[in-house]
Amino acid sequence: MPSLSIDGKEIFAEEGDKILWTALKAGIYIPHLCAEAEAELPFGGCRLCFVEIELNGRSKMVTSCSEPVLDGMKVFTNTKKVIRIRKMAFNLIISDHHLDCKPCAKKKGCELIKIASKLKIPLKTTSMKSLARDLPVDDSHPLFTFDPRKCIKCGKCIFTCQRLGNSFLDFANRGFEMIVTSFDRMPLSSLGCDSCLKCVNVCPTGSLFLKEKGNKENG
Q1: Per-position DSSP letters for 25-52, written without gaps between them
Q2: What pTM did the predictor assign?
């Protein structure tokens, strides 16, 4: 059983465990948006879970969702390098996010608000201009709405849907143009979705939300 230290706290972990989940189990917060404990291959898209590690006299920056713990490893979650990378990653995410919190169905449960508070930075970036796109809202499903303008491309809805044996949602395009969408941009109501709503439950922002919770902006 590997023994490591995280911010000076000695911790025992299971062989093969990732740093992120080891830290969270020990009560040490590391911001993350796209990480799923059940995923065989970590997505590592949000870049918020960077930490600095020392092992055998060498130090490096790694994404904690993908880096396995090793015996004797030292992990630092709040160095200057770590904080700088996290702030840059967060600002990039926010720059492509339709930031309108008041009518948002997620409200105070939004992970972006939580992370901004933890990082002690404004929710609205001042270091880069907004790149948010005016993408069409899919309101066709009787139970929930998909607002791609608030999607942060964490992939959680895709992973959850595919883990259930479905493929109603997936990524399309590359780079900045990448979006989460249905096959051939078909309306959600036409996909044969069995309305388990698990995609809605895992969404960390107000991109997928139940209609009963409402969103003033979308009626």
Answers
A1: HTT-----SS--TT-SS----S-TTEEE
A2: 0.86
Is the predicted pLDDT of residue 39 greater than 90, yes or no? no
Q: Distance between alpha carbon 176 and the CA centroid of its chain, in Å?
A: 17
Give the span between the Cα atoms of 52 and 41, in whole angstroms. Answer: 21
Show Cβ contacts of residue 20 under 8 Å, excluding neighbours closer than 6 positions: 30, 32, 35, 49, 64, 65
DSSP 18: B
CA dihedral of 43, 45, 51, 57, whole degrees rounded to 10 = 70
Residue 155 above 70 pLDDT? yes
The torsion angles phi and psi of 137, rounded to 5 degrees, stand at: -80, 135
- Please, are residues 50 and 34 in contact by the beta-carbon 8 Å criterion? no
C-alpha–C-alpha distance, residues 73 and 54, integer Å: 6
Q: Do 175 and 92 meet the contact criterion of CB atoms below 8 Å apart?
A: no
Question: Quick one: CA dihedral 118, 124, 126, 129, positive or negative?
Answer: positive
Residues belonging to the chain = 219
Read off the tokens for 214: 């409402």
Listed residue (161, 146, 148) closest to 36, CA to CA: 161
Q: 116 by DSSP, 3-state: which?
A: helix
* Helix/strand/coil percent split, the chain, to 5: 30, 15, 55
Helices 80-95 & 111-119 angle (0-180, nearest 10): 150
Q: Decide: 183 and 166 in contact? Cβ < 8 Å.
A: no
User: Look-up: residue for tokens 């036409």?
Assistant: 190
